[in-house]
Batch of 4 targets.
Target 1
Amino acid sequence: MSAEDPLVIRSLEFMGGMAAAGSWRPDSQLPEVAFVGRSNVGKSSLLNKLVRRKAFARVSRTPGRTREINFFRVNDRFVLVDLPGYGYARVSKERKQEWRPLMEQYLRHTTQLRGIVQLLDVRRDPSDDDLDMLDFLAELEVPVLIAVTKVDKLSAAQRVGRMEELATSLGVGTEQLLPFSAQTGEGRDDLAAALVELVEEDPWSLE
Ligand code: GDP
């Protein structure tokens, strides 16, 4: 482990899951950072890499937990929030939209929310669900980091062009995209440093 690790994990505790809008959520005032993306985008792999615990995100994947919001206390300093993956192609349209009330309730009513990490797969164009989510987050004015996953799947040359395309389709600059690979570990420390900055900053929501 490198001495410059911006986020050394000293403790990691599963606090529980929130199953539906209005139901139980942890009673904690620690700053929260939430991770969101479509199913299969590589969220579990990214979270495992981020906290350097292979078994970590498995808890979010156990039956009954995949559609919940799962909360993890990190170093007794902040809470990492794993939002359910959306837009799973094999479920019905009705089922697909099930995530909305739960996520909207969480995102609108969590005053200690310091930021969101939106994940996008480098090989896929942003889906309608991705764009809806980004619009919603822009409306909330919550800081958003965009992590572009699975960058190891492209060559260095392909990647440059692809990052530009993605940035253009999202209307942001390429410097706002954080390349990430759970396979090679690329981007882990940059993401960790960005998270630490978010949770240590003064809350954006307090004027
Ligand atoms: P989730 O549904 O968003 O939690 O996605 P997972 O983390 O389960 O990953 C979905 C699939 O993508 C799995 O087959 C992973 O092995 C693969 N995957 C995830 N991250 C990476 C990555 O950085 N590089 C590569 N090559 N594959 C990845």
Note: The chain has one domain: 12-200.
Target 2
Amino acid sequence: MKKYVDVIVPLPIAGQYTYSVPDELTDKIKAGCRIVVPFGSKKYYTAIVTKVHQTAPEAYETKDIMEVLDESPVLLRRQYDFWQWLADYYLCTLGDVYKAALPSGMKLESETLVVLNPEFEALQPLSEKEQRILDLLGNDSEQCITQLEKSSGIKNLLPVIKALLEKEAILVKEELKRSYKPRVETRVRLSAAMQTEEAVHRQFDALARAPKQLALLMKYIELSGWTGEKKELKEVSRKALLDSAGATSAVLNGLIGKGVFEIYSFEIGRLSAEQVSVSPLNPLSSAQQQAYSEILTHFHQKNVCLLHGVTASGKTEIYIHLIQQAIQAGKQVLYLLPEIALTTQITERLKRVFGNRLGIYHSKFPDAERVEIWRKQLTDDDYDVILGVRSSVFLPFRRLGLVIVDEEHENTYKQQDPAPRYHARNAAIVLASMFGAKTLLGTATPCIETYYNAVHGKYGWVQLTERHQNVLLPHIEVVDIKELARKKRMTAQFSPLLLQKIREALEQKEQVILFQNRRGFAPMIECRTCGWIPKCKNCDVSLTYHKGLNQLTCHYCGYTYEVPKSCPACGGVELINRGFGTEKIEDDIKLIFPDARVARMDLDTTRTRTAYERIIADFEDGKTDILIGTQMVSKGLDFDRVSVVGILNADSMMNYPDFRSYERAFQLMAQVAGRAGRKNKQGLVVLQTKSPDLPLIAQVVSNDYGGLFQSQIEERNLFKYPPFYRLIYVYLKHRKEEVLDQAADLMAGYLRNGLGSRVLGPDRPPVSRIQTLFIKKIVVKIEQQASMSKVREYLQQVQRAIVEDERFRSLLVYYDVDPM
Ligand code: ADP
Ligand code: ZN
Ligand code: ZN
């Protein structure tokens, strides 16, 4: 009987494709495995089988699949159910989900760029085909798979590429940007003939005229701790030796040729690189113990529980106890953190307790490492705990019992671009329910919707109102900067009180954090004469000025421009640095406190994970006195020498035109304030604002989340926002503005036919042109009780009607469900 397979291809097309399976592959094919399929005229892709069956499609002639890549499924049944839920709920395709879910190394296609791994040394002989590919890459180290196929003459190259990737002889191009950590380390040792002290000394003399080789030998002696006596030497990696001696590999090879050194490979195992010793759990305080028991009680009746605990109340300690409990019951735990909060601080803390049972999944890790975690999750030796960012909801699990979403209010849990525009917290709740697992949402400043669910009994609700060991919450002092500016008493952006408190803190060797919200305050340049501001030629936005690089950058399309010497509008030469970026604050603070050690943490100074961790480590170690930063400084970091926190401008957060702006402003200020305070001294927060009389300011000062919730929930009800209504934004994009306007009006009209006044717009979003495409947005507001599946169906029906219209062929339509 002829076999057919339904597959997901990594493309944004609706529905699945059916292929036929050639006879020689019928035994190998299984649902959940990856296969290679032709698609379009020449291209081929890695697709995933969702179903094996015997029904040929009626509408089209099937093509044969080319190859089966896996012996056993890499996509488990429940993962596939989860993918379907995501595509359905977030109005995107399974192809979109597939692309987001799998690490690059698992979804090769004809256009994938591969490169030689410079660290590779073959441990076993390579096949003839593999060798041919390496030779080709040796000539030109970066090629796409189609190109390699052409020049090697090997048909159907993917299995060969896959084998080379598994041996780590080659890498997918993307991961070169990340810091790649090899699994096998090449190490250096003295050869057998060099084992005696005498032999080594003879070698010293012999190398007198080869100073570079001599220096390298000396370096080795130093690094290995060799003393001539019989004892264990330290292992020395080839890279460490060459790096610290500043020598080239030619020098080393010379010594190997002379029989001084030999090299050997050592398997270091990337995932469990160091053997960690596991320490016992901290006992919980009585308040924590109480919260812990309440959580477990709620879990008897409810699937989701909110742990609302002030900053530093010990939420993380409670998570650790819950994880331990789940593991003892034979279950797996997924612990989600926002990208930026996933630091060494938290990983070290968990590693200390869970050792090698903990796996860490981070988007800034090398792709090969993510592939390895994925594969390990499919074995019997899978991780008990995964600590990871948003995308770790896609990992395979088989025994999931508990999901923890820390800092659940964080809006970075929502993926903005590209599709699937999913919210990892909400997706995780659904994932957990598919396993019959429980979800704990933890935060000091809940999302309004979450709190609403807790108050109304949909979620369990547990509170921790005291910090651990009665450390006091900080005292917050409000400063009216409008008044001070009028009296000309501000120094740059600093009030006299803030400067005085910074000075006192520095005198007492305490630390300071200065917080500047970035939004709406990106640094720009402006012509002093005519007010001209440079804008991106592809997008409708002002360019951001990077003083360090002396460049203008578009934060939407990434395009960079030179800073003009004169104003193109009026020819004036006085281009001033406007705006309020963190860079400017850094400059000013250095002028005022020339002896202080100042660091800055924002998008520009934290491009790599190491840069980010460096800044935090220096601050922890007291190597920095003042840390200036954007929202990043507010994220779950735990410092114990910070006595003063300055919030430079509260208004920039509150005035943002969005229904969540007050909620966010409260969350940001409460979180950043939470960094202040130490074991035996109450911390101080200086909150600078132009509107000290706003109720929100009073709520922040008294840490009155309940008050904030009350006022927000009334507004949300009145203006039809979540949690009372669900929002769906419909975006339309087109190169031509007239075509876009026509399409948007037509689509909004169709939508109104079915949904009436639930449809608003079309409008131009604040940024109405990105990468040369014009954008329009239609807002749909649906009552919480309404049937979402009907609404989704209707939206898709309207979309089909629009895109099938001749005039709108190249129109792009996409959705943002539950936008943040
Ligand atoms: P949160 O997650 O609520 O911000 P943490 O769990 O990070 O709070 O606790 C704050 C600090 O107090 C941490 O340094 C943590 O190690 C310490 N701490 C909290 N609870 C305990 C405990 N039961 N035993 C020992 N240290 C604790
Ligand atoms: Zn000008
Ligand atoms: Zn741009």
Note: The domain at 475-519+582-714 is CATH 3.40.50.300 (Rossmann fold).
Target 3
Amino acid sequence: MARSTDSQFLHPSDINRRDVLQGAVAIGAVGFGGFSAAAPTAIALHTIQTSEPMTAYIGTATSRVDGRDKVTGKAKYAGEFKVPDLAYASVISSTITKGRIAEIDLSAAMKVSGVLAVLTHSNRPPMADADKAYKDDVAPEQGSPFRPLHDDKIMFNGQPIALVLAEDSETARFAASLVRVQYEEESHLTDVYRARDDAFALQEPAKPRGDAAVAFTAAAVRHQGEYYVPIEHHNPMEPYATTVIWDGNGKLTVYDKTQGVQNVQRYVCSVFDLKPGDVHVVSTFVGGAFGSGLRPQYQVVLAVLAARALQRPVRVVLTRQQMYSLGYRPAMIQRIELGAKANGTLDAITHDAITVTSQYEDFHRNETTWSALLYKSGAAKYTHKLARLDLPTSCDMRGPSATTGVYALESAIDELAVALKIDPLELRLRCYSDRDQTSDLPYSSKNLRECYRQGAEAFGWSKRSAEPGSMRDGSDLVGWGMATGVWEALQVPITVRAVLTANGHAEISCATSDIGTGTTTIMAQVAADMLGLPLEGIDIKLGVSTLPQSPVEGGSWIAASVSNGIVTTCDAVRDELLRLAQKLPDSPFATATLKDVALAEGNLIDKRDPSRTVAMADAMRHGGVDRIAREKTTTFTTDGSHAHNTHSAIFAEVKVDEQIGVVRVTRVVSAVAAGRILNVKTARSQIIGGIVWGIGVALHEETLIDHHFGRIMNANIAEYHVPVNADVHDIEVIFVDEPDTIVNPLGVKGLGEIGIVGVPAAIANAIYHATGKRVRDLPITLDKLQR
Ligand code: MOS
């Protein structure tokens, strides 16, 4: 079975990457390629007969199997591995934005007792020169990836330019403060508004339909607006960190914070010209990443450089401030035009987007896709331009392109509803589409209608009075707003190994990460149900590059991919158990086939006659085996006849202090349709996390750059505001029933990103309803409401 290069499970943004990644795999929001050397036989999941598992755990509110380890500190993160002879590092960052390093004076730093070395571009060990050596699985198609300490060129403020190595971390940091750098500065540009006229057009994001300009001009009711979302930084709790263990003879164990250990492993081997067997990468626990760890970050390069220079173990941990020298959610200027008939059906949608990237790589996603697919409209047109700034390359951040693109669309739809004097929920129902409007395909499942209905009912939407400023609570203006969310149900080829032992224990392994989403737990649940074992009998191994292949954890694709991957592999284990059971004298399974047999409570059970059972242990003992090991790759093929998406309806209440304009988001109801929910507890946590971040996007988050210096002014979590406890009030999550027999055998669609999409618009719309003020640039801060 061919790898699914021709699968339709492509992220829209990846359509133009297909040729480039041919031979590898081009699926998903971030794209990836390459496999572990020993790729086992690939099986197309839809061709095998999968029995519906007996579900003791799937679908339940199972607590995290690694929760205890996390709260007790037993779980170790990349910067926590302590080994004898460990050297500590401090990164020195550029204080200019563009130019070159003229001179670095190391003399004072080198005099400090305990300093081992200071690495710079001029004294570092060898590393690759060619661009392509630095192209990780998630690198943009166009451009030349950043090469830390490679040469004297400065491309962004905060760029790492030297690494101080010492016997302890305080010494390294102190010595770093003594390093004097002289620069030759060039003029720079960091302001998207000054770069917008030079932005260059990307390929047409989605097929235009009809003549949108003509249809817009002729429309009975029109709305046009420009919306802005600033640069945002990920700010995961865990800083980027790498501990490299020098195993001797050039062999390295790399504890790294990443969303993809095999991506980092291939990257390190490529940059340092190392043999695959000489580097293994471990990232068992990740303290949040949200897209910032899809690509290898510069600290891993610095740590490996240093370990090679010193020939001893090294730890590099970025400071919170240095976390702002990595990728970011690109700022986005969007223009939307909507034309409608008086009855609320759409005649025209135009969505133009400008996003930002660095001078050296072209990162973009297809930000206008969401407008293209969501609503029925006779005519539609989309454009996307990219502006170059003297900043690091932008990157994926939770719900990349949808968080920002759908914010603009769903704000514009709300404004159209006001112009039409139609309830905003009613307007969305009048434009509802049961087909993806871009591909003109039906969905494998789409229960957005039910999201609207259940969300509205739980929220009490019918009690809303339409007039802005008409609802009050004492001195607070009350606003109710809503929006639609949409994301993709993506899936990627994945390999899972299962080893079942006769004592009723199984080890399930796969190189995927668990970036904090609960992957480990859902893997254990699915495996327990598929193998008929208690949850405690399942041991999950992940986050190690030598395990069976997995792409990066991103795009909300791992839950669907790995759960169905476990089904495939466990089916093979069950098949072997059946073969062994059939060898028993007078076997009750003599005539049974795989589809007749389920595993439950340590037994093989004939589903046609559940009184017929054989203990798995007995079958194995009689067959003379004490373990059954299977490894299978699951790919997701499709006939291209359906679109696969997740949806949500978000209802938000805000209370705005009439005098001083303080906004509180007092209630949010999010109703989500995302196929089968594997774990209602971790799933709910994912959605809540997305909603909280949506509050941040709407009200708080903004990376502020002093454009004169090109330097971020609020590179810390005191001044880069994120929602804290006091900002978060009632949140209700509803999972709408959405059976899907087409997307994959388990009907799982993924939840990592849908939770945030639409939330900023729902809040912005609620603020308009409360105040009558339409703020079109995020975040909606007090000053903007006072204008
Ligand atoms: Mo996600 S932004 O693909 O980690």
Note: The mean pLDDT is 92.
Target 4
Amino acid sequence: MRLRNITGSREVIAACPYVVQEVLQRQCPGTWGRIFGNSHPIHIEIGMGKGRFIHTMAREHPDINYVGIEKYSSVLLRAIQKMEQEELPNLKFLRMDAEEIGEVFGTGEVERIYLNFSDPWPKDRHAKRRLPSREFLKRYDRILKPEGRLEFKTDNRPLFDFAVEELDPAGWKAEVLTYDLHGDPDLVQGNVMTEYEEKFSSMGNPICKYVIRR
Ligand code: SAM
């Protein structure tokens, strides 16, 4: 499938073999092994944007199945274009709002969740929309394996401080926590940069990261 000469991201997505189509999403819980054709662990990125991080991860870890989730068709299109250039059998996409994440994964079906440079939603009244909020942690709690981990990176310090404050009330603990990922020689080893990470770290912004568990 070539994207050249095709206008309309929704139409492209509807015809794309890398995307689990919306009409089929409700059938996904408990069936990801069948979708990928193997029983490898499932790692997901929520709000993947143009998909550089998850595409690189999928290339580097062929024994892990990756699912990239993105709300907007026009953005997902860019991740699809990367797959066109380099097709990877262990990467699929979902176009959906993460609020419905519990509708597409079964209980304990996911081994790792990545949140990278999530939208900050700075107004207090929008706090529930922040992907590391306690409301979202509750959703992740159900789909994540008991030994599963969630990783979050951002250069937005107020958002990161908020995310750290949400952990205790939601029953999660930080296993790794840094306010300067790129300045930590141990933690930065093997770090895969996202599009936003490259942009903001090149401007001199320190990158915060946590890895959490229940
Ligand atoms: N993760 C990428 C990176 O680090 O380069 C993109 C970061 S961008 C700031 C945040 C992305 O998350 C956007 O593409 C946005 O559309 C997506 N997003 C925000 N809220 C979402 C939600 N509730 N469900 C799915 N995607 C969402």
Note: Residues 46-49, 69-72, 75, 97-99, 116-119, 194-197 surround S-adenosylmethionine (CB under 6 Å).
